[in-house]
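Curious: why these numbers?
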Amino acid sequence: MKSSLLRTISVLAASLSLVACGAPEASNAAQTDDNQFAIIHQETSQQARFDVVQITDQLSDPWALAFLPDGDFLITEKTGQVVRVSAETGQITAIPGGPEVLVSGQGGLLDLALSPDFATDGQIFLSFAEGTNDQNHTAIASAILRGNELTGLKTLFQANTIEKKKGAHFGSRFVLDDAGHLYASIGEGFNWLHEAQNPHSHFGKIIRLNLDGSVPDDNPFADGVDGAPEVWSYGHRNPQGLTLHPTTGVIWESEHGPKGGDEINILQKGGNYGWPKATFGMGYTGKVISEFTELPGMVDSVLHWVPSIAPSGLDFYEGEKFSNWNGDLFSGALAGKHLRRIELDGETEAGQERLLVALKEKIRDVRSGPDGFLYLLTKSGKLLRLEPS
């Protein structure tokens, strides 16, 4: 479902008073120096004191965020719309020309990414749920953004999960590497968990494509004999975080476990990440899914969470605004309703910190901005910016 109506909504400067997480320091809402956006929260964490600036609270279940060259934000709303948010005013403008999407349960319009050559070609990539409640799948399309309109919509990929029904576990996140490849995560559809171990199925996989949708010759199953040509790794549950390490170029992934067992993983070509044969989680009714947390030939997670935080959105911080955070990994938490900061020693977890607990927001996406600030999308409809106090 998509809307072709133009939406221009002024930001509301709410006068909210919120208590800071861990009570270090808090203050009433205030205006930023440019007198445009409200500071809705202040917090002193282990390594930084920062303000939370609200750019807008009028989004409709936002899912993903990208930074446009002119400073504006391009955002997908799960309800089916691509929108532009003005960096100067917070006004929201609908962008027509996107795909027809299935809005059902966790399905809708999901991730987006800009082409590496976006400044000249205007190309963007979108992932979305497609089909009906009785038969659906995750799909990927490309389009060209010209002004405030998408043109040239082209389907690049449709998951081969033709038996999937209802609205659970579509994934889906993107990351682009430096060699012209698009990686995307596909969920295992919930009821089709055992298909995550079948390399021929797209259920529970990370796929890897060229930017035109073709299959790279060096994919682990490129010949289609031992697995689907698009598959890069398998044994995943419902991955909703993908990011590129800024130094090593290695791809890191986060995925939802069942009741417990959320994971952070480092992706390997052809790697089997265990689900559902090895997991730290259990079924929602308490039923044991597997007695194993690791198995030979399967890749162990970097870290896992019990109980679940429901990780969504994943990015490494890069910038000078928060120098103590450089190289730290940040994850949104939907069920946990906080922002999780993860300190690393190489590829090993060295510590964690919960941020923004007092906001009680389900954080859907996390992005390190080109301006050195950290940006968040909340399920409630907010675009937030973290700035040093």
